[in-house]
Amino acid sequence: MKDETVNVEHRPLGRIGGALFCFSIFITSFYGAIFILGPCFALIYIWPWLYRRVVDRIVAFWLIFPIALLEKVFRVKFFVKGDGFNYMERTVIIMNHRTRVDWMLFWPCLFHCARLRKLKIVLKSDLKYIPGPGWAMQAAGFIFLDRKWERDRPHVEDLLHYFNDPNINEPLILLLFPEGTDLTENTKSRSDKFADKQGLPKYDYVLHPRTTGFTHLVKQLVEANAIDCIHDITVGYPAGLIRNENDLIEGKMPKEVHFSITRHPVDTLPTSNEEQMSSWLNEKWRAKEEKLKKFYTSDRQFLDTRQPYWDKRTISIWIALLFWPSFIVVCSYCLIVSQMLKWYGLGSIVFYIFALRANGGVEKLEMAVFQALHNKNLKKD
Questions:
Q1: Number of structural domains found in the chain
Q2: Distance, CA of 47 to chain centre
Q3: Residue 44 falls within a domain, yes or no?
Q4: Contact predicate 271/218, CB 8 Å
Q5: Sheet holding 119-124, edge to edge
Q6: Which structural domain range is residue 234 located in?
Q7: What does the pLDDT read at residue 380?
Q8: Structure pTM?
């Protein structure tokens, strides 16, 4: 594996700054899941479509907070080249997984170029068990996978069917990392062994993608007429690299993050044939390896000539930067002085635990209630 960041400094805030960043992200998601998302759960049993729209906007507003910290506090610079996004498009985003926090560093790109509220991320199922952030991601309807396709397939199908139901009709931007994990020495070794077994080339800047889940996901979206295109995104870190959460805690941040975007309209893809779609994905990863090789061995710039539209949205960023710290202070104070609020908070925590144990998470409870209401209406008719 090539070391892309040799002799390149991070933009550090020190361990205190890093610890405050991580604490802020955790506590705002924890309080938000309890005191903002919690009251919305009643809507699941009354107007599921309204619940989905309200929660998506709440989660999108929270996502602006880490974006604000990255841009205004850590002063990370983001650069985008290529095709960009259309606000109204339903798309699957495929991206190389260089670090464990690529998803967070991608949020600014989507915020400035598209709509955060439409975002659903395909994640490891372990993340749903994290108090606070995991609860919020469940409520957001993120797709959690066990990485065993036999078990994941029914859940993915049910969730996509739910989002595409005419009564919900929620257009999606699905973020998927086909490599399944981030690039490390260990994961590269496993990827190289797979390449040797399959007679494929070994890569230095990416891992060989897992094609089964991707091809089935795209096929199901096409059959539901719920996808307009695929955005192939390559991320590069020319100045600094966050390898994992420990780097965040230590206050390390990249000085720059670069994205190269290629848009593929769905009618130009071999979506009717899963084997051909698998080959298409493998070919894109071969091209991604070459693109990243040029990126890191030249002037650390992507060579795309187009510059997508970038909406600065500075007002939203400053509002989030002011609101969420204030929200922490108000919630902490109210918990200290109000016994009723303490009981409410405890009840909300019990609800999240119950939903996880009984249904597998809030997102599965949401689907189960919707299906029960749908069946009830059918019987009335």
A1: 1
A2: 26
A3: yes
A4: yes
A5: 77-82, 256-265, 229-239, 91-95, 173-176, 119-124, 143-145
A6: 14-380
A7: 65
A8: 0.92
